[in-house]
């Protein structure tokens, strides 16, 4: 009986299976009176839209989800911008400034020390493009890791995120400190 159900459901297309690519020439992003990003698109107006990078570690300007909460407070995706380069310069700047603010991640430029408190936390003393700080990381295996052979990603207990796009560019002392943890 289960095989029949699988065969019947095999041809169904679910809303989640559809990727709606937006026509960038029809997108009109603007700041509303409250300062939120809103959108006019295809005869519809959407207030307080949310822009999300679908592949945030590998591409900053491609596959950008555009969504909003409808009147029932349900998340609804309007569609996806395949490449922001297709936007007009003004639209590109507005979308890019929103995304840069949302995905603000200081770059790690030096690692001074890493101390393990043996309770699942590590304290990492670093220099970043936002200044020197000591960050506390819980579950370092998940939150302090290489995403590629060179790209280091860190997320602290407060939800702040940090990165180093190429650890081989760090000084030798920083690499020696990192060696045990990556």
Keywords:
182 residues; alpha+beta; 2 domains; three-stranded antiparallel beta sheet; 4 helices; disordered N terminus; DUF1854; DUF1854 domain-containing protein
What is this entry, summarized?
The protein is an alpha+beta fold and 182 residues long. The protein folds into two domains: 101 residues, no CATH class; 71 residues, no CATH class.
Run of helices and strands: HEEEEEEHEEEHEEEH
Which of globular, elongated, flat, extended, rod-shaped describes the shape?
elongated
Strand order of the largest sheet: 1-2-3
Calculate Rg over CA atoms. 21 Å
Distance between the terminal alpha carbons, to the nearest Å? 49 Å
Q: Could you say how many structural domains there are in total?
A: 2
- Helix tally? 4
Explain how this protein is built.
This protein has 182 residues and is α+β, with helices and mostly antiparallel strands. It has helices at 2-10, 89-102, 140-143, 172-178; strands spanning 28-31, 37-41, 44-46, 50-53, 62-69, 75-83, 108-116, 121-128, 131-138, 144-146, 152-155, 161-164. The protein starts with a helix and ends with a helix. The protein has 2 domains: 2-102, no CATH class; 108-178, no CATH class.
């Amino acid at each position: 009986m289960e095989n029949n159900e699988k065969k019947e459901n095999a041809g169904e297309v679910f809303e989640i299976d559809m990727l709606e690519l937006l026509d960038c020439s029809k997108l009109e992003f603007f700041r509303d009176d409250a300062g939120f990003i809103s959108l006019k698109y295809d005869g519809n107006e959407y207030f307080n839209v949310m822009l999300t990078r679908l592949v945030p570690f590998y591409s900053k300007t491609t596959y950008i989800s555009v969504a909003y909460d409808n009147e029932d407070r349900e998340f609804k995706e309007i569609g996806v911008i395949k490449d922001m380069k297709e936007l007009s310069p003004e639209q590109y700047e507005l979308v890019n400034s929103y995304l840069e603010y949302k995905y603000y991640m200081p770059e790690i430029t030096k690692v001074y020390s890493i101390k393990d408190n043996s309770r699942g936390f590590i304290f990492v003393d670093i220099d970043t493009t936002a200044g020197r700080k000591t960050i506390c990381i819980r579950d370092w295996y998940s939150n302090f890791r290489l995403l590629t052979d060179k790209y280091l990603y860190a997320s602290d207990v407060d939800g702040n995120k940090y990165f180093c796009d190429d650890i081989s560019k760090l000084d030798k002392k920083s690499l020696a400190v990192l060696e045990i943890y990556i």
